């Protein structure tokens, strides 16, 4: 009997020891009560409690969690019935408040987010709801945080997933969006054509400017060449005139020398007569009648010319 009693005692002690050990995993907290009253919160790790005295009221996760809120029917300011569903992310900051300040904090989050979403969306038109989704999310988050902070929950985000309008409204919106896309496409095409025309006109303008510049340079080079040719021609004429003048000067010198050597002016007079006869003979209409004395004088003049040429 003694051995049986000892075994029973050992078993009871073991059961007591095992029952007193609580292992809390990382990311969780245990809320412990003693005789129905809050006793303490167990952090991750090994803990001992008094069996049948201390009781683990709830195991609370401290991880970030998400709640997918079912679609809710909402009537907008312009009397359009739409369906909206959203997602809410949260984390427990105070496990005691999450257990004792509300019966079910997840249900409280869903209910609060739904009410605040309806309040925010109900004061806006459908177009505003579709274009201001980010502002709606911020407003819902702010209002939900004011409520959930009382039971130890921090709301990290509230995001609208889908906004589903009635079928006829959806078809009308798709038609409008299609028309807007076609309008933008036409505007872009017209803008492209305009830019193309501007570019083409600019190219033609530059081509005309370049052609005019080329013509100008060509005319300048042609004028410079003509000027150079005229200068060369004038220079040639000047040299020719200079040569003629020099030859005439030499002829006059010869005549003067002949006059000085002969000591008479008859030779000069004879030469003048010869020049006059040459000028008269150049005109076919002139008829010359020369007397015998003149012919004899011409012989003398010819002799003088022979004399000058020899000298």
TrEMBL record:
It comes from the Bacteria. The keyword Hydrolase applies. The lineage of its organism: Bacteria, Bacillati, Bacillota, Clostridia, Eubacteriales. The chain crosses the membrane at residues 6-31. GO terms for molecular function: peptidase activity. Residues 19-177 form the Band domain. One of its GO terms (biological process) is proteolysis. This is Regulator of protease activity HflC, stomatin/prohibitin superfamily. InterPro entries: Band7/mec-2_domain, Band_7, Band_7/SPFH_dom_sf, Stomatin_HflK_fam. It comes from Clostridium acidisoli DSM 12555.
């Amino acid at each position: 009997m003694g051995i049986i009693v000892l075994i029973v005692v050992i078993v009871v002690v073991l059961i007591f020891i095992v029952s007193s050990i609580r292992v809390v995993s990382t990311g969780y907290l245990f809320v412990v009560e003693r005789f129905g009253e809050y006793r303490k919160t167990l952090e991750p790790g090994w803990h001992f409690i008094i069996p049948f005295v201390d009781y683990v009221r709830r195991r609370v996760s401290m991880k970030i969690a998400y709640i997918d809120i079912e679609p809710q029917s909402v009537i907008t300011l312009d009397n359009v019935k739409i369906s909206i569903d959203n997602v809410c992310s949260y984390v427990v900051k105070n496990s005691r408040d999450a257990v004792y300040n509300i019966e079910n904090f997840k249900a409280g989050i869903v209910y609060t987010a739904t009410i605040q979403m309806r309040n925010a969306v109900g004061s806006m038109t459908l177009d505003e709801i579709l274009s201001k989704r980010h502002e709606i999310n911020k407003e819902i988050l702010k209002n939900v945080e004011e409520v959930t902070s009382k039971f130890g929950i921090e709301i990290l985000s509230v995001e609208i997933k889908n906004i589903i309008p009635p079928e006829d409204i959806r078809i009308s919106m798709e038609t409008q969006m299609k028309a807007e896309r076609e309008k933008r496409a036409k505007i872009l095409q017209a803008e492209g054509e305009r830019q193309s025309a501007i570019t083409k006109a600019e190219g033609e303008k530059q081509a005309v400017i370049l052609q005019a510049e080329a013509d100008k340079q060509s005319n300048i080079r042609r004028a410079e060449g003509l000027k150079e040719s005229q200068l060369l021609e004038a220079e040639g004429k000047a040299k020719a005139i200079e040569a003629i003048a020099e030859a005439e000067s030499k002829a006059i010198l010869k005549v003067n020398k002949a006059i000085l050597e002969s000591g008479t002016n008859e030779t000069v007079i004879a030469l003048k007569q010869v020049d006059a006869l040459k000028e008269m003979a150049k005109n076919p209409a002139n008829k010359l009648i020369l007397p015998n004395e003149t012919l004899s004088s011409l012989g003398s003049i010819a002799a003088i010319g022979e004399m000058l040429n020899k000298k």
